[in-house]
Amino acid sequence: MGAASPAYAAVVQGIPWVGPAGSGAPFEVDPAVGAQQAINDALATVGQGAVFVTGGTYSLKAPIVLGDRQSLVGTGPLSTLLRAASGFTGTAMVQTPTGTFTGSRMSIRDIGFDGANLVANGINLQISASPSSYGPDPAPWLSRVFVAKTTGDGIYLGGDYSGGQREFKVTDCRVEHAGGWAYHFKSSDGFVSGCSAQGGKLGGYNLAGGNIKIWGSKVYSAGTGDTPGPGFRIGSARATVVGCEAQDTRGCGFEVYGHGSNLSGCTADSTGIGDPGTDRYSAGFYVASSAVNIEGVSYQRTGGGGSWIPAKGMMWSLYLAPGVDYVAARLIGDPNRPTPYLGGVYGTAGSHSSITVLV
């Protein structure tokens, strides 16, 4: 039998791995081409399986394409760091295949992505039709992933398939300095835990898909300029938000548009623009939908507000949009109440509501 091909040898030796030039890795990175070539070659070789990228900082000049039941694994969110290079071609550092994609169950873990303000998304996973290999829930997993300096959304999950990347799981991730949303979920039935967002010009977390569960996550410094950015936007129905915090945002801490949403144990700390006439964008919690339950704390602390955004902070603990009803809100403020704080509640809910704000 003749000598095994390099691709075959890479498989029989174990998980295909990618390393720097001269490392002896089955798939070595050519800096002149970009690390995406070696990573995509390894993914093509493994088929349905995992590709491991050794520690180091690597340049990307085009997207990594993650397909059906494939995993991209690094040594840690800052130990393996992929950075967009000048001349980057594409809209995301990691994406699903273009055209009609029906794959599912991709995963990304222990790896970092630095967009260097050259690329729209760090991660953009989409499904365009009913999954063909495993379904009905495409369910990608992201764990211990770091994304920084994108011109658009840091992490985006969606697609034309009903519910997008349904039953997704995002855990222990961090997004910094995104030019859009830090996290943008246009997918339903997802689970998000232990994540953080610093910055995000449009906001921290956009829960645009239905029935998303998020807990133990935080955002600060969201919003900028003329675009008030809330910490959390609950844009679709039946969301559950537990133990989350928004702090020092240029916009409300939590915006609730989703019917049947439930927020429990959440904290809004010094959230809002705080200038006269910006009441709508200067509340801890903004409610624009009926059948909403909120329990938590909402206050302006001494010296609070993101002066670097710029933002002065909270004017109202709770802002009720016209026409809302069946709202139960139980909030605790702070007896200190420094400026620009004005009061506990702005607006009035319907007769089927119960509102208590202690300040």
What can you see in these coordinates?
This protein is mostly beta strands. Helix content is 5%, strand content 38%. The longest helix is centred in the N-terminal third of the chain and has 12 residues, at 35-46. The protein is elongated.
* CATH architecture annotation: 3 Solenoid
**What's the number of helices?**
2
- Largest sheet, strands/sense/barrel: 11 strands, parallel
| Estimated radius of gyration | 22 Å
Bin the helical content. Answer: under 10%
What spatial order of strands do you see in the largest sheet? 5-8-10-12-15-18-21-24-26-28-30
Number of beta-strand segments: 31
Task: Report the CATH topology name.
Answer: Pectate Lyase C-like
Unreliable spans: 1-12
Give the distance, in angstroms, between the N- and C-terminal Cα atoms.
81 Å
Structural class label:
mainly beta
Average pLDDT reading: 94
Which CATH class applies here?
Mainly Beta
Summarize the structure.
This is Right-handed parallel beta-helix repeat-containing protein. With 359 residues, the protein is mostly beta strands.
